[in-house]
């Protein structure tokens, strides 16, 4: 099975967590795009979605699924999203798709976070994937120096040679060289640094379930 087929497999498998009449929390990325395509096949059974990015909103609307503002819902039963890395505790590195801030906001509304990922995302310890951090532009270098003090190398994410600007109008640092053995403490520490909008460690908003696409089929891991 190709990586794309594994993503489609888990994207479809996530439908088992969707109940009729629900508003579904929807993440961002190529694996979530497979889930959105699968969701379209049951769109008459759901009430709509709350989206974590302009990209996912566009895809949902193009498929005829109503998109609600996060401020219009009190709670979501389920949030479905991908990950760049997920560890044995269900903690994740996210933000490869630059949507980490809204992803964490929508995940915070949900009773259950269902992570859908191909097996390449499963790691013992977070940190091989460069950690995305959304920052207020004027704080970027100051924050980069704080990561350097921890042995990390922070690079400003660029798009066509200019700083990448997120849906929220901020910049992103990608930090390599980190080994995040205590995700909860690490997320809290970085959250406290002035100028940090969101750090791409999802430990406080960790996954409750992971549908892992493997050559042998979908492996369901509960955390
Ligand atoms: O940016 C994100 O957080 C995405 O969910 C990312 O982590 C997974 O994207 P992918 O499904 O395209 O690998």
TrEMBL record:
Name the pathway it acts in.
Carbohydrate degradation; pentose phosphate pathway; D-ribose 5-phosphate from D-ribulose 5-phosphate (non-oxidative stage): step 1/1
What's one Pfam family here? Rib_5-P_isom_A
Keyword match Lyase: no
Q: State any single GO MF term.
A: ribose-5-phosphate isomerase activity
Give EC number(s), comma-separated: 5.3.1.6
GO terms classed as biological process: D-ribose metabolic process; pentose-phosphate shunt, non-oxidative branch
Recorded superkingdom = Bacteria
Which EC class does it fall in? Answer: isomerase
GO CC entries: cytosol
Residues bound to substrate are: 28-31, 81-84, 94-97, 121
* Catalysed reaction equations from the record: aldehydo-D-ribose 5-phosphate = D-ribulose 5-phosphate
Q: How does it assemble?
A: Homodimer.
* Reported function: Catalyzes the reversible conversion of ribose-5-phosphate to ribulose 5-phosphate.
The name this protein goes by in its record: Ribose-5-phosphate isomerase A
Species: Tepidicella xavieri
